[in-house]
Write a structure and sequence with these properties.
Oligomer: single chain
Domain UPF0029: 145-198
Number of helices: 5
Structural class: alpha+beta
Number of strands: 11
Strand content: 35-45%
Family: Belongs to the IMPACT family.
Strand order of the largest sheet: 2-3-6-4-5
Shape: rod-shaped
Domain Impact N-terminal: 22-128
CATH architecture of the largest domain: 2-Layer Sandwich
CATH class of the largest domain: Alpha Beta
Protein name: YigZ family protein
Organism: Gemmatimonas aurantiaca (strain DSM 14586 / JCM 11422 / NBRC 100505 / T-27)
Length: 209
């Protein structure tokens, strides 16, 4: 099962090109955090390749293999020969927040239904083979205060919960603002409450990568 807080996503836009029976196929991969991002990316590709025979696409928004927010289009190719095989590849690639547009320039030789399925799905597979990814981590930003006597304990605690110190202020007490993985947040709050004997107050701000 995929960890919903951590999973790979495309690091940057990536494109490959293939020629199959004189037809030119370009596959462009992009990270999309929302369906609006996906539609904007597709629109951008249509504008970049307005003279293409087809600009077929598919996307999976969310965790790898998620079916909540998906989309696909054959863009004029025979039904089920482009968008569906592209989506199948994306859904099983183990990468989240991902969209692909395969641009085709027809070369004069018909590929047939099976040939099209293989060409469109294969173009996405070829692009994924050289796609750089980064880990997407759900994080939270939290502010809390401790007494001056607990500063050393807090400074030792932060690295153990993968917390990044964003800001600290020293007034009547010592105030810390940190960012850490959402999964580590309960560990942080429990440790700080133990230090403060249950009197700590946390101000939480959700953050996206």
């Amino acid at each position: 099962m995929t960890d919903s807080a951590r999973y790979p996503v495309p690091a940057t836009r990536h494109r490959i090109e293939q020629v199959i029976d004189r037809s030119r196929f370009l596959c462009t991969i992009e990270r999309v955090r929302t369906t609006e991002d996906a539609q904007a990316f597709i629109k951008e590709m249509n504008a970049e390749f307005p003279d293409a025979t087809h600009n077929c696409w598919a996307y999976v928004v969310g965790t790898p293999g998620s079916t909540d927010r998906i989309g696909m289009s054959d863009d004029g190719e025979p039904h089920g020969t482009a968008g569906r095989p592209m989506l199948t590849v994306l859904s099983h690639c183990g990468i989240g927040e991902i969209a692909a547009v395969v641009t085709r320039y027809y070369g004069g030789i018909k590929l047939g239904t099976g040939g099209l399925v293989k060409a469109y799905g294969g173009a996405v597979q070829e692009a994924l083979a050289t796609l750089a990814t980064v880990e997407r981590v759900d994080t939270v930003t939290v502010t809390f205060a401790v007494g001056y006597g607990q500063i050393g304990a807090v400074q030792q605690l932060l690295p153990t919960v993968d917390a990044e110190l964003l800001e600290q202020q020293f007034e009547t007490d010592a105030q810390f603002t940190v960012r850490l993985p959402r999964s580590q947040y309960p560990l942080l709050t429990t440790a700080i409450q133990n230090l403060m004997r249950g009197s700590a107050v946390f101000h939480l701000t959700e953050s996206t990568p």
